[in-house]
Amino acid sequence: MPSKNEQLQTLKDSGVVAVIRSDRSDELVQVVQAISEGGIRAIEITMTTPGALDVIKTCVAKFKTSVLIGAGTILDTETARVAILAGAEYLVAPTLNPAVIELCRRYNKIVIPGALTPTEILTAWECGADLVKVFPATTMGPRYFRDVKGPLPQIDLIPTGGVNLENAGDFIRAGASAIAVGSNLIDKQAVARGAWQVIRDTARKYVEAVHNARQDKA
């Protein structure tokens, strides 16, 4: 099994975290399959999805050698613990809860809390966050990342909320370590039709957008 540091490097190297939210869980394994075939190596199942723990268990068993399966919308330590026991390899929260960070560190799991202001971002990092999710990212825009990274270059940031193909590269060029994409990646109509090639192609486009933006920075 890869170490936590190796998993963290995989997540950052991949550059894209797919965020899956759904009112139905029966199609999520196929969604994960399509996303992974598109080249995304980190996929987050939000705890707002019905049967989220079972989906996490199934996906970890099926994709463990090729994809990091995480749990999202972690609001408290109880939810964090059951997600870890279900097999989640990283945990993501929309807010900053130091107790959740502490529990993840106890279990040696990657933890990505949410923050917005420089004070919140620094506090999350000081508490032991591996990366910090800036949410909602599009409220501030890519320029905000450049401004924050100036005094806080040591903190890995991930924009979440409104990231799309048009601005994904801008966030990377502004200093984001990776991007997180949800509804703009997963076309609900394509899922309903079983048009998995659409999901694969869109995933591939996001991976390429991150790769090209990183080449621009090099």
Number of strands: 9
Could you say which overall geometry the principal axes of the C-alpha atoms support?
A: globular
Global mean pLDDT: 95
CATH superfamily: Aldolase class I
The helicity comes to: 40-55%
CATH class: Alpha Beta
**Radius of gyration, taken over Cα atoms and rounded to an integer in Å:** 16 Å
Element-by-element helix/strand order: HEHEHEHEHEEHEHHEHEHH
Based on the structure given, which CATH architecture is correct? Alpha-Beta Barrel
Our measurement of the CA-to-CA distance between the termini, rounded to an integer number of angstroms, reads 32 Å
Structural class: alpha/beta
List the helices and strands and how they pair.
Layout: H1 4-14, E1 16-20, H2 28-37, E2 42-46, H3 52-63, E3 68-72, H4 77-85, E4 90-92, H5 98-106, E5 110-112, E6 114-115, H6 118-127, E7 132-134, H7 137-140, H8 142-149, E8 157-159, H9 168-173, E9 179-181, H10 188-193, H11 196-217
Parallel strand pairs: 1-2, 1-9, 2-3, 3-4, 4-5, 6-7, 7-8
Helix pairs in contact: 2-3, 2-11, 4-5
Textual characterization of the structure:
The structure is a single chain. The chain is α/β, with parallel strands linked by helices and 218 residues long. It has a single domain, classed as Aldolase class I (TIM Barrel). It is 49% helix and 15% strand. The strands form two sheets. Strands 5-4-3-2-1-9 form a six-stranded parallel sheet, sandwiched between helices. The protein has a three-stranded parallel sheet with strand order 6-7-8, covered by helices on one side. Helix 5 links the parallel strand 4 and strand 5 (110-112). Helix 2 (28-37) packs parallel to helix 3 (52-63). It is globular, with a radius of gyration of 16 Å. It starts with a helix and ends with a helix.
